[in-house]
């Protein structure tokens, strides 16, 4: 078995979650509705949301698993204790915007909501677990969508700034690591999650996607500025979904298509947030989507703000790689994290069809390192699978261990290649509601939660086999992966 010994001292081993997928308590403590609260559960979730009839209203014919999550709101002390037992050095989570500002446009925050995060952060620090907080993770207040049209409206920059300033100020001495928006680039194909846009409020017009991105870039730069002014030691990163992308073959047409695919999916949002300016290919990128630069509302003051406040590090999710082919018809396709591609015959896939490619993670780390020369933080990676517990609720998840082992080996190899990798937080370190399907049956965690897709169960927590394995990985700083 390969033994790695090159992970730097202080490497941030941990796990990752999102408020809307585990907290539950969707109307407790003064919390308002978020966009996640109106997304129905089940395998048809994405098709329902993509329908022109979707209107952000609750419908009794659907289930809404986010309303319950795994009831982390009432179990967080138990959950953090389990994370501490695994030896977490950090824990990546998000602050639900609508728990702090129920409608999103209030001037003053909901103190009861903040007190929940006071307690959560203090519980982490009690065990010397470094909080890593995503400010906005697919859970913007619903009111900002229905009343303001979401991120196409520049007023949201001010609302986000108020939210960011509130939490950055409150936790300035307790939280060092922050990220502005989760998977901001996912709006390329599915803008509901990060931008609050669907067909009924403008998602069909690409101009709106780019305008929303620009407004988010400006809002993110304001958060970086605020954080650095409050505490110069704060590290504030961006966060993207990264899918290493291969050309199907050496046909120059496919090579060009792959380059252009990388521009929009992997690099555009990062180029702006890391380099502080729009890349040279911006005009051609917009043109491919039928958008002109003159269609976008921006000004010199905003561009100066971007230039003066680049992010400190790059956080990213990595689950699978993609294949681009524009020269053949009727190619077999593969699913993925909000986007897919042509099936790669050299790779196996998960239960949900996501192609498993550890080498792609090594490539991703090299590509990002070479392009940006910034610290990299893998803040999501993991295997969604159907876990079958025995009569004692024990899950023998060697398949998950194998997946994680191979990806950690790839990280080690990328560090040898010269990549500056600061941490690794596997996704869904405790079972939670899937963002793509709203299911509990798609499980990622080291900890099994007794709950089904309808929200029924005891909500008791049980350690899987991967729990003790990951504990050993952390204890040895990645040296022992057996």
Automatic annotation (TrEMBL):
Stretch forming the signal peptide: none
GO BP, sorted A to Z: carbohydrate catabolic process
Pfam families: Glyco_hydro_1
Keyword Cytoplasm included in the entry's annotation: no
GO molecular function, a single term: beta-glucosidase activity
GO-annotated cellular components: cytosol
PROSITE patterns (UniProt xref): GLYCOSYL_HYDROL_F1_1, GLYCOSYL_HYDROL_F1_2
Active-site residues from the entry: 380 (nucleophile)
Keyword line: Glycosidase, Hydrolase
Assigned protein family: Belongs to the glycosyl hydrolase 1 family.
Official protein name in the record: 6-phospho-beta-glucosidase
Source organism of the structure: Lactobacillus apis
